[in-house]
Amino acid sequence: MNPTLLKQTYATVISDINNGFYALAMNALKPWLSELGEWTADEEWQQLHTLYQNMLHYTLMKVNDPQGDELMRQFTTRLYALTDHVWMKLMEQTSNDFVFAEKRVAVVSDVRWQLAVDVVSEFKTTNNEVAYAEAIDNMFDIVWLGDAITPTMEGDLKHFLLNNDSDKVVSVTLVSALTISLLYLYDATKMYWLLRAATSTHRQVRTRALIGVVLVLSWHDNRHDAVVLTQTVLKTSDVYETELLNICCALIQTGNTPRITQTIHQDVMPKLRDMASPLQKLKRNTDLTEINIDELQSALAENGLDSAIQQMTNMAMRGKDIYEETLSPLRRTPFFNRLSHWLIPFFPRHPQAKLLTAEHASLIADNNTLCDSDKYAITSMLGMMPTGNSAAIQAIKIDGEQMNELKQSAGDGASDTNRLFDLMNYVRDLYRLFALFNGAKNFRGVFGKVLKATATEWFSFYVHSSESQLQMANFLTQQKHYSEASVIYDRLLTNKQMKTDGEHFSRVGLCALKCNDVDKAIQYLQAALCLNENHLIAKRLLAEAYEKQGDIDKAIEMLLSLSQAQSDESILLKIARLYLKQNDYSHALNVAERVLYRNENAIEMLRIAAQCALEEGKIDVVMNYNSRIVNHAQHNVSDLISAGHLMMFLDSLSEAESFYNQAKIKQANNEKFVNLFFKDIDMLYRFGVSKEMIYSMLNKVMLE
Predict the structure, then answer these.
(1) Residue 106, phi then psi, degrees to nearest 5
(2) C-alpha pair distances (Å), 537 with each of 33, 521, 562, 702
(3) At residue 265, what are phi and psi to the nearest 5 degrees?
(4) Nearest Cα to 660, choosing from 687, 640, 681, 680?
(5) Which residues make Cβ contacts (< 8 Å) with residue 278, sequence separation at least 6?
(6) How many CA atoms, within 13 angstroms, populate the side-chain half-sphere of residue 330?
(7) How is residue 146 annotated by DSSP?
(8) Measured distance CA(190)–CA(186) in Å, rounded
(9) Closest CA to 497 of 472, 524, 470, 478
(10) Under 8 Å between Cβ of 547 and 532
């Protein structure tokens, strides 16, 4: 049996167990048992078969068995475990990648475990930092690689995870080990201890454990037994609702990092390179201390960089990693070759931290703006620079002082600030681990699974109040995850848990619109306006919905109504473009001229006015607008080409050639220039310019 078929069959069996089709699941296991040839697995299957037959007998005889629920729980737990066991054994035999990627292979040694626990326990008296750090790494490896949790380990886990007097560096590291192990392969015992850690009164242990629970439930979304076990251990969901909601939001937001990174690579960085020359010119012509901020902002806005930079700044302020490749040196640092080093809390007595002076290590340890992998990375870098690192240390010190001031100003809210940093910094460590550590490459999409989990059973169970679900839906809408938000909105509407509020209905309409359900969007946006006729966002969205529906007249009518209530140039620009879409050049020109009367430098309106005047044959008007466009500070390559087209149409070939040459120089890329040249070439054909003339002009420009 090949690995692909094994995985498909495994998923089917798990689904059958989840849905209560136990006989189908057991029948599907029989061929596997024959292929495996392991007598202990055969014996377990026979026992489960007999147990289930007896349970069915009592059920059909309508005998009320007081132990029925407990027997069913035991039966399903054992059936899940048998399925996992047989599947893992067969996968070991058929897949070379399975051993590392999906199977924990180390047989647990109580002796090795006990040695590590003893070293940790004796650390206060021995003060052997190297042995202590190695013991923690060994405990981490035993938990995440081990094939079982032994009774000896369970006693120690109880001590470390639930005892307030335990070593918290060890405690939080073990929570991470449980999480990583469960992401590689689900195990009921390890899940139980992760859930017990989530009940800890220690802030960091609890936070790490709850983050782990969210990731595991999201990753193993086909494991109904995981949900049941979670419900059993975390009995009162109200206690955890706010925390789980915040964790989901943090994971989803961090999961957007690759999308932001891609935008930066494909959009922002090329624009920044294009801006280099104008900025250098601005710097040469102006004293650096007296740079005209308005001029600089205009240059950034022209290139669309202002919003992108703001987005990057917002991410940085929220503790998100923006440039993934700036983290890649971590991958090449020997310290980070060990998985546990991505997740162990930073403490000044760790051998890696001891590369610095005690004062500098304490400065880094106290800085809450840095995640643990950041801190260890800094010790690596500063450790390789024995001299000249004072500036970096000073920056860390200033950053830490500012954070302390923030905490002091928070007063009673300081504990909330600490919880937020615990949450965000651990999420950053996990993101870096999944993005950069070779062995964790299969889990780069784990944060994306959290996003999808918002529509699942466990999410609605733990984040169950309508207020919290509405908060999550609104957050997803802000993050532009419209389809996921729509599922939650629909659930609230179906259960009649959403108040008839114009703001809520407008968000439902927005999600429907972005999901291309135009009829639903119009329904809810109209409902929002019925509740509040002055709801400007609903009007704007409704206009967009009418446009998508193909009803341009209604879209224009809605935007005209909006323009009366809100003096916004972008609304009039949209109206003018809709008139253009209908080939109503007279009305489009009228709107453009109204705006230009108030703002003569509105370049988009100048472009529309020039196009409309040309279509209406008002050549003098076109000449005026084109002159204003090419002399505008924000003119682009297409504007120069359009001016050249106009001159060619008017048979002013020398002026046309001049504009084309300017465009070619500004574009600095011949292929892109040619593409732009032909973009609106139909206009020349419509006005009678021959193909021979067009190609002759292009060739002449390209030869120069």
Answers:
(1) -75, 130
(2) 62, 13, 9, 48
(3) -65, -45
(4) 640
(5) 299
(6) 27
(7) B
(8) 8
(9) 470
(10) no
CA 434/CA 211 separation, integer angstroms: 15
Query: How far is Cα 144 from Cα 141, in angstroms, rounded to an integer?
Result: 5
Q: What is the per-residue pLDDT for 100?
A: 46
| Identity at 637, one-letter amino acid code | V
**What is d(CA 336, CA 343) in angstroms, rounded to the nearest whole number?**
10
Q: Are 361 and 354 in contact (CB under 8 A)?
A: yes
In the block, tokens 């993934």 appear at 324
The amino acid at residue 632 is: H
CA distance 155 to 153: 5
Q: Are 120 and 349 in contact (CB under 8 A)?
A: no
Q: Coil, strand or helix: which one is 528? A: helix
Tokens (6 digits) for 686: 């419509």
Cβ 375 vs Cβ 409: under 8 Å? no
Phi-psi region of 551 (alpha: psi -120 to 50; beta: other; left: phi over 0): beta
Q: Which letter does DSSP use for residue 108 in this model?
A: P
d(CA 429, CA 344): 10
Determine whether 491 is exposed, middle or buried from the number of CB atoms within 10 Å of its CB (0-12, 13-18, 19+).
Answer: middle
Element housing 547 (H / E): helix 536-549
The DSSP output letter for 148 is -
Q: Are 193 and 154 contacting, i.e. CB atoms less than 8 angstroms apart?
A: yes
Cα distance between residue 512 and residue 486, in whole Å: 7
Distance CA 437, CA 339 (A): 8
Those residues whose C-beta lies under 8 Å from the C-beta of residue 191, and which sit 6 or more positions away, are 182, 216, 226, 229, 230
Q: Are 472 and 488 in contact (CB under 8 A)?
A: yes
Which 3 state secondary structure label does DSSP give 55? helix
Quote the CA–CA distance of 169 and 343 in Å, as a whole number.
10
| DSSP-derived secondary structure for 97-143 | THHHHT---BPP-HHHHHHHHHHHHTHHHH--HHHHHHHHHHHHHHH
At a CB cut-off of 8 Å and minimum separation 6, what does 453 contact?
A: 214, 217, 218, 221, 248, 459
Four-point Cα dihedral 514, 520, 521, 522, nearest 10: 150
State the Cα–Cα distance between residues 294 and 303, nearest whole angstrom: 14
524, 505 Cβ separation under 8 angstroms: yes
Determine whether 193 is exposed, middle or buried from the number of CB atoms within 10 Å of its CB (0-12, 13-18, 19+). buried
Q: Which amino acid is at 61?
A: M
| pLDDT < 70 regions, the chain | 1, 95-109, 236-237, 258-332, 383-416, 438-439, 441, 704
Query: Can you give the three-state secondary structure of 258-323, one letter per residue?
Result: HHHHHHHHHHHHHHHHHHHHHHHHHHHHCCHHHCCHHHHHHHHHHCCHHHHHHHHHHHHHCCCCCC
385 phi, psi to nearest 5 deg: -120, 80
Task: Say how far residue 279 (Cα) sits from the centre of its chain.
Answer: 33
Contacts of 129 (CB under 8 A, 6+ apart): 349, 350, 351, 354
Q: Which residue bears the tokens 């058929």?
A: 94
Q: Which amino acid is at 473?
A: A
SS3 66: coil
The label of the residue with tokens 């809450």 reads 368
pLDDT tens digits, residue range 586-640?
999 998 888 888 888 888 899 999 889 888 888 888 899 889 998 988 888 899 9
- Chain-centroid distance of CA 402 in Å reads 28
